[in-house]
Amino acid sequence: MGAPNLLNPERRMLRAMQLSDADRSWDLASLLAACDWTDQAVAVGAGHGLQNHGYVSVSETRLVEVRLDVEGERAVEDGLLEQRLWSWITEQSTATMADLQQAFERHEAGPGVGLLKQLGVEIESGVLVAPDPERLEATLLERAAFLSALPAQAEALDETMLGHFSSRKNLIQSVERTVRHWSLTPAGLECSPDDLQESMVVTDITPELLQGEEWKSATFRAFDVALEATTPRTGRSHPMQALIERIRAIFLEMGFSELVDDYVQSAGWNMDALFIPQDHPAREMQDTFYLDEPASIDIDQAVMEAWKAIHEHGGETGSTGWGGSYSTDVSQRPLLRTHTTVNTIQYLAENPTEACRVFSVDRVFRKEAIDRTHLPEFHQIEGIIMEEGANLQMLVTTLKTFYAKMGYPEVRVRPAYFPYTEPSLEIEVKWRGKWLELGGAGIFRPEVTEPLGITSPVLAWGMGLERLAMLVLGLDDIRQLYISDLEWLRNQPIL
Ligand code: PHE
User: Fold this and answer.
1) What is the Å distance from ligand 1's center to 461 Cα?
2) Can you give the pTM of this predicted structure?
């Protein structure tokens, strides 16, 4: 019968015990020496393991050891308080209480005299007298001898003395200790030494290891994956930043290039270029942050003339426009962009004929009252595809692909309205059984593309990043993203 399940320390201990007398009782020190160990815990652990296997038996004795405490150590050096007082008394011709209080400090004189009284000393008219000095001195000697015999096992000590010193402060202390003795059982004795060879335990698999032969007979350390472990608390990206990185990676993978542009823009590019009428309610002060500085933003005169024609009567597009009169002053008003479409449209104006796929993930501003789902500053995931033959089907497929890569395979689109797209769509994603609106999309209208010289169809979309973050992170309040709640931040998943 072999012992294949033994751990290395158990093998070593059993082997050491077999090499000595079969009926020897081993104490800790001899085990440590025989096994060449210094750590008591290793020996106790191995002994415990061998006991569970039935190869050794363990006897445990609980011992109480009595040791000197701080005051006890002082007493051994300088004498017990009652001894020091008695020595002083014997040196005086007449030992008066008044002299004693001079010779000793108050914290010693009081208790000291108390101790002496218990030993028979009396005070007669202020003088200390001992009716039986021999007995008193015998007791003092006995006490001193008790202390100098420490440390010792409690059961070997005089009970009365032990009781006496236990009642006094800080003179002695008792320490409990378990003493173990190990001995071989018949099964342990029979274990074949061949089974007690210590095996190599592999904790790391390295190329060097695999080049040799030793690993073939090695034991591989098992990992207990159910063990509790501490969570590493190191620096990491803010979940919002991590999400942005993931979105970037997806668009880059889909063949898009990233566009980064300013958030200070003109009303012209932010709205007029997108055929948003100059009297549109969203352009009002209460919805948009206009800027005092700079006083105005220059826009190419020819571009503004083109917008003016489009807005007033549809220009060359065959559209009737919005009518009324268009103001180039309004166009040049500075504002904080209300959507990132302001940047993609400018990109198209600069590159009107080259097919492109462009995206951005950037900050936009709207005068929103802050609540669970609204912030005045938020982010949009914007994108365009311009190429010959681009169509609605392609737009829907692109959006579905993006959300599928984000982990939301169920996407649907519904008709919507934006002044700058036709058709216009609303994008919805299914989350926990509900359809949630995440953004808008569409194909730019001729009123948008023609004045800028764009000839191919442009698919465009703009989606809320914070909305998406709420899904990804399971939030019910958008503000959670922008407060420094360290506990929450630490517990966010790695995106
Ligand atoms: N700009 C729109 C918004 O802010 C989204 C959108 C972009 C719609 C492009 C259509 C095309 O909601």
Assistant:
1) 5
2) 0.59
């509900």: which residue's tokens? 434
Spatial separation of the C-alpha atoms in residues 315 and 453, rounded to whole Å: 13
Containing 439, the helix (H) or strand (E) segment is strand 434-444
In terms of DSSP H, where are the helices of 351-479? 392-406, 446-449, 465-473
The size of the chain, in residues, is 495
Q: How many CB atoms lie within 10 A of CB 334?
A: 18
Kindly give the distance from the C-alpha atom of residue 425 to the centroid of ligand 1, in angstroms, as a whole number: 9
Half-sphere exposure at residue 479, Cβ-oriented, CA atoms within 13 angstroms: 6
- Choice from 263, 340, 341 to test ligand 1 binding pocket (greatest atom count within 8 A of CB): 341
Give per-residue pLDDT as tens, 386-444. 999 999 999 999 999 999 999 999 999 999 999 999 999 999 999 989 999 999 999 99
Cα–Cα nearest to 128, from 115, 144, 139 = 115
CA 79/CA 15 separation, integer angstroms: 52
Query: How far is Cα 197 from Cα 15, in angstroms, rounded to an integer?
Result: 8
Q: What single-letter DSSP state applies at residue 287?
A: T
Q: Using a 6 Å CB cutoff, which residues line ligand 1?
A: 339, 341, 418, 421, 440-442, 460-462
Cα 39 from chain centroid? 33
